[in-house]
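User: Sequence recovery, please. Input:
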C-alpha cells in the first residue's frame, strides 16, 4: 500500500480542488490519501463525492499551534468535524487569518512592495487564507522567484520584516481537543528548521506524555540526519512515525506520494481513531 497522510487543497492553500486532489492521488498510484487543509474541514464533501474506486480518504486537518513563541503544526486525523470544542477553536484560528493577511499586505506596502489585498484574495480563491497566498502574490510580482523564497527573514518567515502573528492554539490544548473529538494527533515536520525556530525535543517529550500519537518523520523539509534523529526520538517516546508529501499542488515542487507512511502505522492510526473512519472510494464523479 502507498499511503500519503498530509495533503492540501484549495480549501486552504493548495492549488488542486478537493476533487482534483483525490483524482490526482489515484493517478499517482496512492491507495490512501489524507486531506489535511489548514484549520478547516470544508473540502471533505467535495473530496468524498469525487473519490475514485480503489482510493481511501482519511479526513483530517493541519492545526496551527504555538508553544514558547515557536509556531508549529499539528496534524489531526479522523476526528469528529462537528465536535463543538475543536470546531470552535478551528474557527478562532480561521477568523484571525484574514486580518493577519491584510496586516502582512500593509507591511509589504510599507516596504515598497505593491501587493494588494484583492490580489491575495484572488489567489486564495475562497480558501483559508494564509502566508502561502501572500507568498504567491510576491512571486506574481517578481519580488521572489518561488513561494519558498518568500519564507525568509527578509519577507514572511517568523520574525521577518512582513511577518504578522495570528491566533494559534497551545499544542497541549490542541492534543487534548483532538483526543476528545476522537482523533489522532501527529506533529507535522518537527525538524523543518528552514521554516524558522523548531520545538525542542524536551517539549516533544512533554507532548508525548500529554497524548501526542506520532511525529511526521519522512518529509521534504527533513534531511537524512534529521530523519534518523526523529526516528530515534519516536522510538524513545513510543510515538508513531509517519511520512507524507505535504502536497500543495503547483504551489510546491513535491509530488503526491513523494514520502509515504508504513501500512502498519496507518492501521494503528485507524485503530486509535473513534471520531471518524476512513472513506473507501466507490467511483466518484
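Assistant: Recovered sequence (285 residues):
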Amino acid at each position: 500500500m502507498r499511503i500519503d497522510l498530509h495533503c492540501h487543497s484549495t480549501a486552504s492553500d493548495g492549488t488542486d480542488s478537493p476533487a482534483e486532489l483525490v483524482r490526482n492521488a489515484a493517478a499517482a498510484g496512492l491507495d490512501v490519501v489524507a486531506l489535511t487543509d489548514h484549520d478547516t474541514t470544508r473540502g471533505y464533501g467535495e473530496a468524498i463525492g469525487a473519490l475514485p474506486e480503489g482510493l481511501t480518504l482519511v479526513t483530517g486537518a493541519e492545526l496551527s499551534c504555538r508553544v514558547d513563541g515557536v509556531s508549529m503544526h499539528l496534524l489531526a486525523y479522523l476526528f469528529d468535524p462537528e465536535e463543538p470544542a475543536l470546531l470552535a477553536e478551528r474557527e478562532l484560528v480561521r477568523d484571525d487569518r484574514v486580518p493577519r493577511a491584510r496586516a502582512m499586505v500593509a507591511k509589504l506596502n510599507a516596504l515598497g512592495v505593491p501587493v494588494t489585498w484583492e490580489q491575495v484574495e484572488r489567489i486564495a480563491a475562497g480558501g483559508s487564507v494564509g502566508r502561502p497566498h501572500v507568498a504567491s502574490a510576491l512571486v506574481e510580482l517578481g519580488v521572489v522567484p518561488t513561494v519558498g523564497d518568500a519564507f525568509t527573514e527578509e519577507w514572511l518567515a517568523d520574525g521577518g520584516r512582513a511577518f504578522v502573528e495570528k491566533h494559534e492554539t497551545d499544542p497541549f490544548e490542541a492534543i487534548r481537543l483532538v483526543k476528545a473529538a476522537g482523533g489522532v494527533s501527529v506533529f507535522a515536520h518537527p525538524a523543518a528548521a528552514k521554516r524558522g525556530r523548531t520545538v525542542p525535543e524536551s517539549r516533544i517529550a512533554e507532548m508525548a506524555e500529554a497524548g501526542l500519537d506520532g511525529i511526521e518523520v519522512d518529509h521534504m523539509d527533513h534531511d537524512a540526519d534529521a530523519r534518523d534523529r526523529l526516528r530515534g526520538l519516536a522510538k524513545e517516546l513510543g510515538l508513531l512515525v509517519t511520512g507524507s508529501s505535504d502536497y500543495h499542488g503547483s504551489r510546491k515542487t513535491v509530488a503526491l506520494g513523494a514520502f509515504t507512511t508504513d501500512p502498519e502505522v496507518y492501521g494503528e492510526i485507524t485503530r486509535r481513531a473513534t471520531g471518524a473512519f476512513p472513506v473507501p472510494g466507490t467511483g466518484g464523479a
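The CA atoms of residues 247 and 253 lie 8 Å apart.
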